[in-house]
Amino acid sequence: MFTVNNYLQEASFTYDHEKDTRYIGTREAELLDLQEISEYCRENREKLVCRLNDFYQEEVEPGIPLCDWLFAGLGSGSHDTRELLLRMLDMITESTTAGDASISISLGPFPNSCHTKEAYLAGRRTILAKQKNVEEYIRFMSSCFQDCVFSDHIADAMKRIPDFEKHTGEITFNLSLLNDHALSIYKNSGNDSSRAMKELSARALECTGDPSHKEYLKFPFTYIMETEKGEKLELIEEVECSPHMKLIRKDSDLRIYFYWYHEKIHGGKKVLIGRIGSHPY
């Protein structure tokens, strides 16, 4: 299975020796950014990896290694600032094996590294767009688009896309657009699907509906419902995904069918991706 190493740059924690600045106690905003990346990795059941000994020995203030700043309370910085990093420690582990790809992560700006969630997501999606094997693409896809829910049969049409490896960049771009913006565009348009599709069309090749083939555009989504007794039931909801992003050309058969949201599925907080591939009719 395709894996990614989220490599945490230990040296990004070191204070600026030349300017005598960037003490870790003053870097709360950067720690919050790192926490966002850490939580994204946690949701994907991934860790941040590094050389732990180097990490704890990084000099974060003059004469003060990170371990003493963190555990002995030496140096500057509030209790809350130290707590930010303490809460992340269970996500930081020793680097042992190499993944299929790696993303460099840092505390604050650092050469060739991601220090915000937005930059980190761009890094993951760059890796995804270069993945030419359709099955590996499908397995890695969900981890790059956490605000999308993919239908139970999403792989069926994807595996039949001709020359799949030539279209991974375009598929990734359009999934990024849907994941990051579709729901907010829809709600900002007053839940007017036509207006929302026009806005998406302005950002990509074209987004349109397919009202004449509604019977073919219902796709199954599995979701969890909790009963009054606390039991969790796995249920399936068929959702009509008529809006679609056109790919390659406006007359192409390659498209992404989606719907804005469904209240039963993740509380209506995620975009539903019904099909990636050709017409289902």
Q: Helical segment tally?
A: 9
Question: Helix and strand succession?
Answer: EHEHEEHHEEHHEHHHEEEEEE
| Count of β-strands | 13
CA radius of gyration: 22 Å
- Taking pLDDT < 50 over at least 5 consecutive residues as the criterion, the unreliable ranges are none
Please list the strands of the largest sheet in the order they lie side by side: 7-13-12-11-8
Which descriptor suits the 3D outline?
elongated
Structural class: alpha/beta
Helical content class: 25-40%
Strand residue percentage: 15-25%
Largest sheet at a glance?
5 strands, mixed
Overall pLDDT: 96
N-end to C-end Cα span: 32 Å
Quick rundown:
With 281 residues, the chain is α/β, with parallel strands linked by helices.
Defining traits:
alpha/beta, four-stranded parallel beta sheet, 35% helix
Can you characterise this structure?
The protein is of the alpha/beta class. The protein has nine helices and 13 strands. The chain has helices spanning 28-43, 52-57, 66-71, 79-86, 117-129, 134-144, 154-158, 168-188, 193-203; strands at residues 4-8, 48-50, 59-61, 64-65, 92-94, 101-105, 148-150, 206-208, 218-226, 232-240, 244-246, 255-259, 271-277. The strands form four sheets. It has a five-stranded mixed sheet with strand order 7-13-12-11-8. Helix 5 packs across helix 8 (168-188) and helix 8 (168-188) runs antiparallel to helix 9 (193-203).
